[in-house]
Design goal:
Length: 415
């Protein structure tokens, strides 16, 4: 125990005697570790932010919208507009083998919404109860639409967070009544706020039973009596999303009499494919940022190795003196091992703390949509600190071992 205490005292005396050199060594290590952690953390912030944005739509969500189908295959100049119908949805729900769940959506933004306290112009959407299973709609109060609301055509509504705030400022909404174009609806539920920043479209929505919507507020225009705005659906399993899309397209093409293989005839959005595409972009970004961080780390390691080689070589005379006074090779190597380990570990922790401080500052700022504040990736921290510690220890032990193997007289002759 006394030996270790003596070694630590000697280490701190040596570091203090060469303050500038010790500072430069510690700075190189801290800079390499901090840079790597910050760069990798930025990449993870972008990735997690995008994942969070996608999850606010729901898990494995697919959309299909009305489109334009060519009368002559491949000739879009002959295209005609077609509208999705409730029958399209019913056929997809019944016949599409790879589709697990689906719902029709009927949306209008021109309905006048009035409560006893205020008016608002949000988007009113007619949906079936399973819409709440497909989309991410966390309840704040009350309940979601149910099967009896649909079959009995009840005049009930579930309000988004911002629409609730506008219609019932500071007052309870559940159990109250709102007027949609003069028609009375009971508020049976309100939703939690989703998203952040200025994207408020989801929070400005109200949801009513689909049959009520199609009866009182169908889409405007000639020939739109049975039309719907779009269809939301989910694949049976995530990896079957392309098969589910093909099933839905075949049914719609059959119902509207055009070739399902014509991609130009369909409008849609596959959040699964979008996530895979964005994920590959972020993988490339992580490789780039990680490469830059590794280069910075390598430069720091080279600096550490150079400084440790010079520092130990300069102390060959000291090693000879200690051997002449009875120090063993083991005690000499142990001192340099502990010196290199302490120096690099302490410096690495400083770099990690610096990176964590910058990330905490970024966390207080409102970043752009799709970006989360960076965070420390534990594996990156272990790799960064471990590699620099290994480099520093190895750079110190190599010349120390050479000097320790010399005879005391030969070591004392070294300048």
């Amino acid at each position: 125990m006394q030996m270790f205490l003596d070694i630590f005292v000697q280490i701190f005396r040596t570091l203090w005697a060469h303050k500038l050199r010790s500072f430069l060594t510690m700075f190189g290590i801290a800079w390499g570790v901090g840079s790597l952690l910050l760069l990798v953390g930025l990449g993870e912030g972008f990735r997690s932010g995008n994942r969070r944005e996608m999850e606010q739509y729901g898990k494995d969500i697919m959309f299909i919208f009305p489109g334009r189908a060519p009368v002559v295959q491949g000739n879009m100049s002959s295209a005609r507009t077609y509208l999705l119908t409730y029958q399209d949805y019913a056929d997809i729900r019944k016949e599409a083998f790879h589709v697990r769940n689906a719902t029709p959506v009927l949306a209008r933004t021109d309905l006048h919404t009035v409560s006893e306290f205020a008016t608002a112009n949000g988007e009113i959407i007619g949906v079936e109860p399973q819409y709440g299973d497909i989309r991410y709609l966390p309840l704040k109060q009350g309940r979601w639409l149910n099967g009896l609301d649909e079959t009995q055509k009840r005049n009930v509504v579930v309000l988004g967070d911002e629409l609730t705030r506008n219609l019932f400022p500071g007052r309870p909404a559940v159990g109250a009544t709102v007027l949609l174009n003069g028609l009375s609806f009971e508020v049976v539920g309100s939703l939690q706020r989703v998203g952040r920043g200025d994207d408020n479209s989801t929070n400005m929505r109200g949801y009513i039973p689909f049959q009520v919507m199609s009866t009182y507020f169908p889409l405007k225009g000639e020939g739109r009596e049975n039309a719907i705005s779009f269809i939301n659906y989910q694949p049976r399993v995530t990896d079957e999303h392309l098969l589910a899309q093909e099933d839905a397209r075949k049914i719609i093409a059959r119902n509207h009499r055009f070739d399902y293989r014509d991609d130009n005839a369909f409008e849609g959005w596959d959040t699964i494919q979008q996530s895979k595409l964005v994920g590959s972009i972020f993988d490339a970004m992580n490789v780039f940022l990680g490469s830059v961080g590794l280069v910075t780390l390598a430069l720091g390691a080279i600096g550490v190795i150079n400084i440790m080689l010079v520092a130990v070589t300069e102390r060959t005379h000291e090693i000879g003196l200690r051997k002449a006074l009875g120090a063993t090779n083991r005690s000499i190597l142990l001192q340099f091992f502990l010196e290199g380990t302490l120096l690099t570990l302490f410096s690495g922790l400083i770099g990690m703390g610096f990176a964590a401080g910058l990330m905490a500052i970024m966390d207080t700022q409102h970043g752009p949509g799709g970006f989360d504040p960076p965070r420390i990736v534990p594996m990156s921290a272990i790799v960064a600190i471990g590699s620099l510690t290994l480099a520093g220890v190895a750079a110190g032990l190599y010349p120390a071992r050479k000097a320790a193997m010399l005879q005391p007289v030969e070591a004392l002759r070294q300048e």
